[in-house]
Specification:
The protein has about 190 residues and is mostly helical. About 80% of the residues lie in helices and about 0% in strands. The protein contains 6 helices and no strands. Helix 3 runs antiparallel to helix 4 and helix 5 runs antiparallel to helix 6. The longest helix has about 35 residues. The N and C termini lie far apart (about 60 Å).
Length: about 190
């Protein structure tokens, strides 16, 4: 008779939260990753706003109210784009570049850094422009002003984390790992796109 695992009822709150996340991840992987991406993306935007407010307050400048719509835009982006796109990208990477390939470590890193990162950053700029209801001129201006800077920063910041993620983190946890790093990355992007 096979043993069944039963949920632990008297564990700590954090343990129960992790256990519930793992159950949802197993039963609804794309939805779980999408919701997690949405929440952490919104938190990244709020972190950026909080950081800017503290800088303004220290220098004696008036502090703006929290832009709830800005956080909502990041949540929508994470929910609709980051979660599903990242899920399928990591799944396909496992198929395209299996660990049996002796060069998979290098190939995976190059695929992510040279193809996925520039494309995903472009999608971010397009999506935010649409969600902000801005026109083509504003999109062009932001692309010229900050895309290359953001991409270079992406390569600097994300490369070590990406290396760890695609080579050592189990595939089902890669979106979560990336989202934890993205919490701070989105705070940076919210600032640089202004």
């Amino acid at each position: 008779m096979p043993a069944q695992s039963l949920p632990v009822r008297d564990g700590s709150f954090h343990f129960r939260l992790l256990q519930q996340y793992l159950i949802l991840l197993k039963n609804y992987p794309i939805l779980t990753k999408s919701v997690t991406s949405g929440i952490l993306s919104a938190l990244g935007n709020l972190l950026s706003q909080y950081s800017e407010a503290r800088k303004k307050a220290k220098s004696g400048n008036p502090v703006n109210e929290i832009d709830v719509a800005g956080a909502a835009r990041y949540a929508i982006f994470g929910l609709i784009i980051t979660g599903p796109v990242s899920h399928f990208f990591y799944q396909l990477m496992e198929v395209w570049m299996p660990t049996t390939d002796p060069l998979c470590i290098v190939k995976r890193l190059l695929l992510d850094r040279l193809i996925f990162a520039p494309g995903f950053l472009l999608i971010f700029y397009v999506a935010m422009n649409i969600l902000e209801a801005k026109g083509w001129d504003d999109f062009e201006r932001k692309m010229k002003k900050s895309y290359w800077t953001a991409l270079k920063m992406n390569w600097k910041v994300w490369t070590p984390f990406t290396f760890i993620n695609i080579n050592f983190v189990p595939v089902q946890f890669r979106v979560l790992f990336a989202n934890m790093i993205a919490l701070f990355w989105y705070a940076y992007l919210a600032t640089v796109r202004k």
